[in-house]
Design brief:
Elements (H helix, E strand, L loop, with lengths): L7 E5 L3 H13 L3 E5 L2 H11 L3 E5 L7 H11 L3 E6 L4 H9 L4 E4 L4 H15 L6 E4 L2 E4 L4 E4 L2 E2 L4 H12 L7 H9 L8 H13 L8 E4 L3 E4 L3
Parallel strand pairs: 1-2, 1-3, 3-4, 4-5
Antiparallel strand pairs: 6-7, 7-8, 8-9, 10-11
Helix pairs in contact: 2-3, 6-7, 6-8
Amino acid sequence: MYQPRDIKILLVDDETSILEFLELGLQNEGYQVMSAQDGISGVNLAREFQPHVAILDVMMPGMNGFEVCSMLKKMGNVAVIMLSAKDEVEDRIKGLTIGADDYLVKPFSFQELLARIQARIRNQFPHLLTEVNLGPFRIEDGRKEISFQDQALALSATEYELLKYLLINHGLVLSKARILDQVWGYDFGGQDNIVEVYVRALREKLNDLDHQVIRTIRGSGYRIDLP
């Protein structure tokens, strides 16, 4: 598994009690953490700290969380999780539109926040992962190997990348177009039915005859659900 000490997290919230709680909890988990109590300080700190993940409160005096998110996304590859005291659809849409990667409504479970941080790291910083255990699967990226129920799968390079992509995005429905872009590349000139061919091959190797591991979501794409 990745070492949390290699992961840098920036917290930006004007509520001191929340900052102290999250900072202590994340440091205890092994993450490098820095915090700021306003948007401008948060942006300046991000330039120096270069965080992998930024957790931003939406409502702050001066520069709000949406503005901070927009500026951080222009700086480079940073995963942004927005925090809001209200569950407004418009706020979620606005945050996602400007580039936020996830959204949590206060009050929230610390364990849920941890799970979302780990999901963003798997998705956006796979190079930091050496070994990841996901349910019955184990990904060993250094060896380009995936095991299922403790048995190493004999995978081609493309099968490995496809299964890895499905796994690190488990729980999400992935369209054929999105899979093609991420696994085969934007300049791939073939037909999207190649995704079906490779999914069929993976199912055979997983003995997934009833499609309970790699699920087909009719009209939408594929999804892996993990316990």
